[in-house]
Amino acid sequence: MSGIVLGSLLVGGCTANGGVVADTVRQQTSMTIAGTADGQAGNTLGLDMMTTSTVATGLFGSVAFPFKPGALARWRQIEGAAAHLSPKDCDEQAACRTRLNMLRDAVSAGADKSLLQKIEAINVAVNRLIKYSKDVDVHGKLDYWATPSEILATGKGDCEDYAILKLAALRQAGVKEDRMTLVVLRESRRNFYHAVLTIAVGGKNYVLDNMRDAVLTDRQLPEYQALYSLGSERAWIHGYKRGSEYAMQKRPASLEAVQPGEGIPVSF
Q: Is 92 helix (H, G, I), strand (E, B) or coil?
């Protein structure tokens, strides 16, 4: 069986608790997982192979293996906060409450629309609601995943913050959590790390992106190469078959060389 390149295993600027995830996949940037005769794969990356005996089809033309990243606990906290976002979460902060009301207005405006129309409206609303800013400028840390209320309080965030706030808004709009996945990826044309929210609708995966208002499918974005993703039930690490037109040929010398921040080029 041919090998699978595991998405270069890069932990980039818009990743969750990058240092924690780096501990999980450190020293593995050039690893190739080769399938064995019984369909099992190596487990040196902490892959949870007990839940599957096959390789699943992944987002952005990848293949995906379930795994348990160190950042999963923080992601669960964020998911919980996204599910129950309310004015009390703003702690009497006027700016937070104002932005929350604006977000709720966007949700209410799409109440009678189709699911795809709701997704498109929320994508635009959140893209307009907060200003892109690096984590180090907002939180004083190179990489920080904020809760929805923290994002609303500052009115600023980087790519994963946009994705988190969109997830929260869509939860308020009644979209089921198991449809939504936060994907950390590499943008191959401009060579930087990024994060987006994807939503499964009618057999397609739609991409909510802070870099565009248009909602495209993952198949319309071949320059996006998934590294890992976080869903309501499981986390996945992504890879590409050798020889694929989307395969990632370049890898950094070490994870420490990866600089956080959406828009920051990948260093080799």
A: coil
3-state secondary structure of 129: helix
Q: Which residue has the tokens 């709701």?
A: 118
Coil, helix or strand at residue 199: strand
Give dist(CA 18, CA 160) in Å, integer: 12
Picking from 141, 185, 142, the residue whose alpha carbon sits closest to that of residue 163 is 185
Mean pLDDT, range 33-55, rounded to an integer: 38
Alpha helices in the chain (DSSP H): 18-25, 72-83, 94-109, 115-129, 135-138, 148-154, 159-172
CA 80 from chain centre, in angstroms, equals 16
Please name the residues in contact with 239: beta carbons below 8 A apart, sequence gap of 6 or more. 4, 5, 6, 7, 33, 58, 62, 63, 64, 65
Q: Under a CB-based contact definition with an 8 Å cutoff, are residues 218 and 198 in contact?
A: yes
Tokens of 2: 């041919």
Q: In this predicted model, what pLDDT tens digit does every residue of 75-132 receive, in sequence order?
A: 899 999 999 889 999 988 999 999 999 999 999 998 889 999 999 999 999 999 999 9
- 3-state class percentages of the chain: helix first, strand second, coil last, to nearest 5: 35, 25, 40
Closest CA to 221 of 199, 188, 248: 188
Q: What is the pLDDT of residues 173-196, one digit of tens each?
A: 999 999 999 998 889 898 888 999
pTM of the predicted model over 0.85? no
Q: How far is CA 96 from the centre of its chain?
A: 24
Distance of CA 128 to the CA centre of its chain: 19
Domain ranges of the chain: 3-71+178-257, 75-172
195 DSSP β-pair partners: 184
What does the alpha-carbon distance between residue 79 and residue 262 come to, in Å, rounded to a whole number?
22
